[in-house]
């Protein structure tokens, strides 16, 4: 090994030993010293793993103002005329039912969701309790059994009623086989 490489290896070993000694010293304690005042270096055959630096946090420019927080949607007040959002409507072959799924953009207990299907003069309704969640009142899935329906195209809508609020979804067409 050339002497310049040995000197670099020795300098690296000295630097590593000094760093480890400084890191392992308890607060307020001084680093150990030798009688000659020069550090003692012990060679090791074990390679030292390279340390991957961690990125430092990004500092934002104080001259650039922070973006305003996103606007909260306007709260929906209880009352008549609430919009019922119909998220899914259709025939389910696996359950052999017409399924209507929806919610109201209002959080309140005590409401009822009703699936209403009409075909000519035929009217079929199925009601179930709605339940409030974090941001809406959910109707969940309202199932209308095949036994209550005849073959053909039906108009379907989902309505919501409570002591303080009511509303109806837009009407959709569903084909019942």
UniProtKB/TrEMBL annotation:
Compositional bias of type Pro residues: which residue ranges? 65-78
Record field: compositional bias (Low complexity) = 25-64
- Entries under PROSITE patterns matching the protein: PROKAR_LIPOPROTEIN, TAT
Biased composition range(s): Polar residues: 161-171
Does the entry feature the keyword Iron-sulfur, yes or no?
A: no
On whether Transcription regulation is a keyword of this UniProt record, the answer is no
Q: Which organism is it from?
A: Cellulomonas fimi (strain ATCC 484 / DSM 20113 / JCM 1341 / CCUG 24087 / LMG 16345 / NBRC 15513 / NCIMB 8980 / NCTC 7547 / NRS-133)
Q: Point out the signal peptide segment.
A: 1-31
| Stretches the record annotates as Disordered | 25-82, 154-177
Tell me what this protein is called.
Lipoprotein
* Keyword terms: Signal
């Amino acid at each position: 090994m050339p002497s310049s490489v040995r000197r670099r290896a020795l300098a690296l070993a000295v630097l590593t030993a000094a760093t480890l000694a400084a890191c392992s010293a308890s607060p307020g304690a001084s680093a150990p010293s030798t009688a000659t005042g020069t550090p003692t270096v012990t060679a090791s055959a074990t390679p030292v793993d390279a340390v991957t630096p961690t990125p430092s946090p990004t500092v934002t420019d104080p001259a650039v103002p922070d973006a305003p927080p996103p606007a909260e949607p306007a709260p929906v007040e209880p009352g008549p005329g609430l919009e019922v959002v119909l998220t899914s409507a259709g025939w389910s072959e696996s359950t052999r039912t017409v399924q209507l799924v929806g919610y109201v953009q209002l959080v309140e207990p005590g409401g009822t969701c009703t699936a209403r299907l009409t075909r000519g003069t035929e009217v079929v309704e199925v009601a179930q309790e709605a339940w409030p969640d974090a941001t809406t009142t959910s109707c969940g899935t309202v199932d209308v059994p095949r036994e209550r329906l005849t073959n053909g195209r039906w108009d379907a809508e989902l309505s919501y009623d409570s002591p303080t609020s009511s509303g109806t979804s837009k009407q959709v067409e569903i084909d019942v086989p």
